[in-house]
Amino acid sequence: MKRQVLLICIFISSFGYGQNKKVTKWYSNAEIDVIIHNKTKYSYSYFGTDNTKHIIWDEDLNVKKPAIGLTYSYNYMLFKKLSIGLISGYKKYNQPDFSMAEIGGVVKFFFVDTDNVFAYCSLTNEISLNKEQFKSGTNARLGIGVPVIKRNKFNVAINLFTEQQFLRLEGADPILNYQQEKSGDLIFKSYGISTGIKF
Question: For residues 145 and 157, what is the distance between their CA atoms, to the nearest angstrom?
Fold first, then answer.
């Protein structure tokens, strides 16, 4: 299914309108993301009714509600087909109910030129907006983007990506509400789609 969607995007991109234009060294990119969780694992400890401490590693959680993200990056063309940039953003997770800001870096490789298909990877530090939800986190994302609208001053692209989100929950509120539950960490393995504008 993912391959079919990608092929459709590439086909649409081939009909995009573009003009020969000078490649600028600096450019901005803004995106809105829909993140679908494939696997979610939770590590924690708790005391049972017999006062025995239990440690649970990587318990699967059934997380069905998607997350929403907004990102902005400011990028510099290091080489003709390679750019590096600073990225910042906001994510809203609905299950569990987490909100976070993020800051980090992104690298993009353009296969032909800056108006065509590109691959990218990013690494960000997740900053909790409520320390009772989680303490901190790290996000790693790998994706591919296909411009579907090309104009002289901006491009609009559809991006497909996979990512892993690691959140540290030590001292945060429990998720399962077991007796004396102490949260450890939470790992989301997800994929998603985003729409971005490069300008």
Answer: 6
* Residue 68 CA from chain centroid, whole number: 9
CA distances, 102 to each of 8, 154, 176 (Å)? 31, 25, 26
How many other C-beta atoms lie within 10 A of the C-beta of residue 149? 15
pLDDT digits (tens, 9 = 90+) for 12-44: 444 343 444 566 899 999 999 999 999 999 988
Rounded to whole angstroms, what are the CA distances from 134 to 107, 124, 125, 165, 182?
Answer: 27, 16, 13, 12, 12
Residue pLDDT, tens place only, 104-143 = 999 999 999 989 999 999 999 999 998 888 889 999 999 9
CA 151 to chain centre: 26
What the block records as the tokens of 148 is: 């579907």
Q: Are 76 and 83 spatial neighbours (Cβ–Cβ below 8 Å)?
A: yes
Q: 132 phi and psi, to 5 degrees? A: -75, -15
Please tell me whether the overall predicted TM-score, pTM, comes out greater than 0.90 for this model.
no
Residue of higher predicted confidence among 192 and 45: 192
Of the CATH numbers 3.90.550, 2.40.50, 1.10.287, 2.40.160, which one belongs to the domain with range 2-198? 2.40.160
Nearest residue to 10 (alpha-carbon basis) of 193, 184, 158, 197: 158
